[in-house]
Model the fold of this input.
Amino acid sequence: MAIQIYINGEYFDRDAAKVSVFDHGFLYGDGIFEGIRVYEGNVFLLDDHLKRLEYSAKAIMLDMPWSREEVAEAVCETCRRSGVTNGYIRLIVTRGSGYLGLSPKNCSNPQLIIIADQIQLYPKEIYEKGMKIITAPTRRNSPAALPPMVKSLNYLNNILAKIEAVELGYQEAIMLNQEGYVAECTGDNIFIMQGDKLFTPPVSSGSLTGITRQVAIDIAQDMGIPVVETNLTRYDLWVAEEMFLTGTAAEVIAVVEVDHRKIGDGKPGIMTNHFLKAFRKKVTEDGTKL
Ligand code: PMP
Done:
């Protein structure tokens, strides 16, 4: 079944789905997006994603003329028409087309684009054996410049960090903030287990308010594990007993080596595996049915 792409109320085949070259989303990265998962016909935490989208829109003063219900229905209908019951949904809102200048004043027609397709971010083996990561030289955007909570179409600084990792043969990289504290990875939030507590950097350190991050925090609370949101250094990561990453595309993934230092015994940790299991259970339960 061929996928159908939604653009402002209409559905298009893959090759026919197009936006204007004058769209400021294209010209300047002036727009926002969400990555959402659908598992066995359940759009996982759709409402949370749409809420974050609305916050991103508000932060960049982009007026979205659609209600949350309309967007939710468009997401579900795109999945249905595309025959996607297990997959990944990319929801994009651009400022719309305008003049060549920076000012968004002449952009009158924001575009809502929804794509539902398959995804396999990392090979299966990585989910079983865990991932090795490094710290990237490129720092995360300063919250004083562009709040990293805004999931904007500007991903260049994360892309630079990703390139730095990939060039060295790694698939993910830790990004530090301006002060040298850990912010997150290029497309995932980061957690460590140390002495029966779960630690993660606060969002104010320069990370995205990850939906999967919140799921991990909820799981920890269900399991009675104290969660500490605090500044973490590279040293804290190097000596962690366990480590894992969270993200919509990556899901929950164990980290077994950081900057050439083995984490724990170099295998996915026991608690990490508990998180993975609890996460798997939630993905078909919490959300919106197609
Ligand atoms: N940080 C960044 C920079 C991201 O792009 C993402 C999403 N891929 C995440 C963290 C994880 O967020 P979520 O769990 O909402 O997908």
Observations:
- Residues 68-82 form the longest helix (15 residues).
- The pocket of 4'-deoxy-4'-aminopyridoxal-5'-phosphate is lined by residues 35, 158, 184, 187-189, 207-208, 210-213, 246-249 (CB under 6 Å).
- The chain is about 30% helix and 30% strand.
- The two ends are 17 Å apart (CA to CA).
